[in-house]
Amino acid sequence: MSSKRLGIIMHGVTGRMGTNQHLIRSIVAIRNQGGVLLSDGTRVMPDPILVGRNPDKVSALAQQYGITRWATDLDKVLHSPEDEIFFDAGTTQMRPGLLERALSAGKHIYCEKPIATDLASALEACRRAKQSGLKNGVVQDKLFLPGLLKLKMLRESGFFGRMLSVRGEFGYWVFEGDWQTAQRPSWNYRSEDGGGIILDMICHWRYVLDNLFGEVRSVSCLGARHIPERWDENGKHYEATADDAAYATFELEGGVIAHVNSSWCVRVYRDDLVTFQVDGVNGSAVAGLSECMIQPRQGTPRPVWNPDERRLHDFYGDWQPVPDNQAYDNGFKVQWEMFIRHVAENAPYKHTLIEGAKGVQLVECALQSWKERRWVDVPALSL
Fold this sequence. Notes:
With 383 residues, this protein is of the alpha/beta class. Helix content is 31%, strand content 25%. It folds into two domains: 3-141 and 331-353, NAD(P)-binding Rossmann-like Domain (Rossmann fold, 3-Layer(aba) Sandwich); 142-329 and 361-372, Dihydrodipicolinate Reductase, domain 2 (2-Layer Sandwich), CATH 3.30.360. The chain has helices at 16-32, 55-64, 74-78, 95-104, 119-132, 146-157, 197-212, 331-345, 353-372, and strands at residues 3-11, 36-37, 43-51, 69-71, 85-88, 108-111, 136-138, 163-171, 216-224, 229-231, 237-239, 245-252, 257-263, 274-280, 283-287, 292-296, 320-321, 376-377.
């Protein structure tokens, strides 16, 4: 079986998500399995070069995971003919400029989301990518979570019948940083640095809603800054200027109503860090990251409201699990394999930058809704 090398520039992978999901559980895992199998039987072996500003940090990361190439000079790497793909998992504010530089250097581009902090910049990146003729993609990892793949299967099988509503709960308590170290970087809580949960999470909910439940038609959003002060990675006090919670309702095509709460100021009392309940005429489902429970119309009990008696009925017992009839690989890795096939053999690929721009568009609509305290329509987006 023949194989070929594919050079990949990986920028910004010294951060938590870049290291864990994109480097270790995606590229390193793909290399360990012998590369990506193409339709003709050929295997493509990723050959990454890690690029970062801190030479000690990036070299140590490369050595730890058996990566032979690393660099601090991004311009030099971009103009090297050794690599075909540029990947970015750095800060959102820097991303449009980095994508432009990579496209100008003739590299295919793949990046984390949001692809920009504003729609104009996102659309400009899309236009440049389209004009270049190069391949482009954006990470949409939650579509590949086992729990959401089970929801997709249920919808496609007709389990729900006419879908009525979606209820999403996301979040956990992020420590303020004074007496316990925060689990997220401090820039997340400064709007001047591109922080804010609306920008961070609404772009996720756009592709989840669009692909699983119906395209978003309008939004009503209320943001909040519940924790006004925090402490950074060095223990220094700072003012939190960005929103840390968002309460959003969406109207979807087909009359489906979705409501998603996103918060870094909520203590978890649910089955998972994110859960979605989908109710339809013929059945309901509740999914987390991995598991999915269902209750069909025929198995729905008859609840009786009686506040004068203690509840004895086990409502959880009325649900049954969707079985794991297939093996689910890491979602980031699955999408990496799809994008590599897209580059290597022009395999179909739908998660392009315009899908990332749709997420930024919904962020702007949500922020406008919060500011003006009203519903905002989400127009169709095209280049």
